[in-house]
Backbone:
């Protein structure tokens, strides 16, 4: 009703309420903003921690990967080195084997050449020996042929001479008297060789029938073939 004092007295509580309400709202907004800011800081811290953890994990993983890569590289280098050593060793062994094979082949070729040379010389010696043997056989055959020819010639000459002597002995005709014993033997031998009978020999020599028969028996024994050995007869 226009009482300012009363208005002032009665307006204290509402104003306090209004101020308090307004201030509380502002406080609540400020607190909310502070809480949100704190939450944001905490979230940022958590995010930073997560990022840091992630980065650390990434660093760890990267370090682990690098370590594994380094170890793998070292292992690969080690394997490559060992493989190279193995290849070098294989090449050395192969080279040694090739050299040994080459030496063995060279030795085999040398031995084969030596064997061929020995065989050639042996063949030449055999051929020379065969040639000498053949020449010796030919020479022996020639000598034997010459000897046979000379023997045949001598035999023919002896036969001719004996035939002439026999003809001379038998051409004398019947003996007028008993011939000297040596000549009588010659005449008896000639008569036997000529196939004359003992009676004819008796007439030619003047000797007795018994003596002529004895001379004919001697000639038969002299001209009879020699008996063969018992072993030869048994084998036949």
Residues:
């Amino acid at each position: 009703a226009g009482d300012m004092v009363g208005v002032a007295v009665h307006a204290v509580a509402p104003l306090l309420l209004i101020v308090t309400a307004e201030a509380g709202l502002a406080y609540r907004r400020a607190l909310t903003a502070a809480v949100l800011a704190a939450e944001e800081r905490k979230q940022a811290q958590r995010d930073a921690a997560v990022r840091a953890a992630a980065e650390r994990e990434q660093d760890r993983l990267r370090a682990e990967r690098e370590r594994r890569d380094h170890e793998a590289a070292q292992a690969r280098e080690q394997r490559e080195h060992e493989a190279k050593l193995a290849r070098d060793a294989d090449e050395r062994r192969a080279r040694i084997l090739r050299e040994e094979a080459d030496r063995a082949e060279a030795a085999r070729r040398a031995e084969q050449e030596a064997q061929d040379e020995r065989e050639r010389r042996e063949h030449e010696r055999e051929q020379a020996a065969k040639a000498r043997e053949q020449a010796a056989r030919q020479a022996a055959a020639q000598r034997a042929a010459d000897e046979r020819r000379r023997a045949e010639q001598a035999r023919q000459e002896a036969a001719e001479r004996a035939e002439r002597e026999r003809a001379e002995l038998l051409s004398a005709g019947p003996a007028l008297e008993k011939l000297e014993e040596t000549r009588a033997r010659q005449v008896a031998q000639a008569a036997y060789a000529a196939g004359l009978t003992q009676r004819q020999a008796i007439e030619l020599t003047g000797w007795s029938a018994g003596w002529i028969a004895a001379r004919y028996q001697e000639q038969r024994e002299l001209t009879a073939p020699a008996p063969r050995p018992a072993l030869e007869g048994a084998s036949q």
In short: Residues 172-224 form one domain. Residues 4-170 form the longest helix (167 residues). The mean pLDDT is 83.
